[in-house]
Specification:
5 helices; 33% helix; NAD; 212 residues; oxidoreductase activity, acting on NAD(P)H as acceptor; binds flavin mononucleotide; alpha/beta; EC 1.7.1.17
């Protein structure tokens, strides 16, 4: 069965910007062809644990003797890897929290990025290679897309680095700026830009859903 893997991690409840956009994208993708399913993982409601040993970052042949990986942790990691490897595409709600990736999302990514397996040591392509990933990243302020890290965006660039550059997935990022315009009075002047950014993101996600 062809499925989209949809990931949420927002903790902002009914205020969330990423959750409705992920849902919107998922619905549009489902409607674009017959025989499709969405598999859903909510990392805020059901977080995966942090890695407890560096052994989980390396293929068994690359592990040090002291890096003992227990069976349950290995099985959990394999399940997460298989879920991504089997997906037709992945959509990730990745809000900016403290200029960075939400820790729940980071823990999930840490399970996927394994040297010697999902990042083969012999130069071959890994199991995630070529899988499209849509990253939906709302943030309270605005960041310069020409050089995002210079302006403080440590959310989207690291996700693109690990999923795209390192694991070979086809990452497309869609950001929403100034989502705090209605909460923080000093940002009220940006409410027009906020509305425009949200509308542009929604339209881009609809377009992307019809192409995947
Ligand atoms: C814990 C936390 C930390 C945040 N840190 C930042 C930040 O560093 N920079 C920023 O522009 N916005 C920040 N924000 C605002 C969020 O990025 C913004 O509300 C965004 O819309 C969150 O997406 P979500 O509602 O889907 O979770 C933060 C919000 C929370 C809850």
């Amino acid at each position: 069965m062809t499925y989209l893997l949809a990931i949420d991690c927002s903790i902002t409840g009914e205020d969330s910007v990423s959750r409705p956009l992920v849902a919107e994208f998922s619905r549009a993708w489902l409607d674009a062809a017959d025989g499709r399913q969405v598999r859903y993982r909510d990392l805020a409601a059901d977080p995966v644990p942090h890695l407890t040993t560096a052994g989980l970052h390396y293929a068994p042949a690359m592990r040090r003797a002291h890096e003992v990986v227990d069976d349950a942790a290995a099985a959990r990691q394999q399940e997460l890897i298989d879920e991504v490897a089997g997906a037709h595409a992945v959509v990730i709600g990745a809000p900016m929290y403290n200029w960075s990736i939400p820790s729940t999302l980071k823990a999930w990514i840490d399970h996927l990025h394994v040297l010697g397996t999902t990042v083969p040591a012999d130069g071959s392509t890994g199991v995630f290679h070529g899988i499209p990933v849509i990253v939906v990243s709302p943030r309270g302020l605005a960041y310069d897309n020409a050089d995002p890290t210079a302006a403080g965006d440590y959310t989207v660039p690291p996700i693109e680095k690990v999923l795209g550059e390192s694991m070979g997935m086809k990452v497309t990022s869609v950001v929403v700026d100034y989502t705090l315009a209605t909460r923080m009075p000093p940002l009220a002047e940006h409410s027009g830009a906020a509305d425009a950014s949200l509308a542009a993101a929604s339209a881009e996600l609809a377009r992307l859903a019809s192409t995947l």
